[in-house]
Amino acid sequence: MNEPVRVVLLGPPGAGKGTQAYRLATRYDVPLISTGDIFRRNVEEQSELGLEAKAYMEAGELVPDDVVVGMVTAVIDEAHKEGKGFILDGFPRTIRQAELLEEHTVEGGFPITAALAFMLSDELAVKRIAGRRTCVVCQRPYNVELSPPREEGVCDRCTGRLIQREDDSEETVRHRLEVYHQQTQPLLEYYSERGILREIDAYADVDLVTDRAVATVERLTADASGAR
Length: 228
Ligand SMILES: [Zn+2]
Fold this sequence. Notes:
Elements: E1 6-10, H1 17-28, E2 32-34, H2 35-44, H3 48-58, H4 65-81, E3 86-89, H5 95-108, E4 114-119, H6 122-130, E5 132-135, E6 141-143, E7 162-163, H7 170-193, E8 197-201, H8 206-226
Parallel strand pairs: 1-3, 1-4, 2-3, 4-8
Antiparallel strand pairs: 5-6, 5-7
Bound molecules: zinc ion.
Zinc ion (ZN) is lined by residues 135, 137-138, 140, 155, 157-158, 160.
């Protein structure tokens, strides 16, 4: 493939997006850019944008889109200088961020080549996340639906007690899904209008999802380089 892969990943909590993002980034040897990590790094390193973002967060305000986009494009530009693409996980979150990202990448001559939406029904997302349990002793993860322990509430490995994290309660998951639908539906339309959105069934086996994601990214990226 001549053109580096430049990918946006979208999908609800529970869709396994983080795993797929990691696998794609490893396969293509490109940076995996997740906004959470970038925030932390910029704040830690006290970069100009990091300090700005911190001031907003400490004031209890949302970090403005241009500050978030500034942090992301700094990493993207670095990758581009090395002739590399990138995988974006959890960004953009708003139409404004998508527009700023598009402006920057189109101007720079390295537009997004593919947007993948990992699709999972709310019911399955809840089942996957609310079913998670972790051993308090050895941290081994379980899922009461998908990979239950031999004895309910007890770790197979060390007989430790299994607990559910607060973030994984059904109520929290339902709220996260609501926010996701509000924010992301417009993004699906945004990338669909640009002809680079493809939906991938995230309910399938994780390796199969990876195979489909890879095939889709390569087809779309080949199309993008053919169009240039
Ligand atoms: Zn254990």
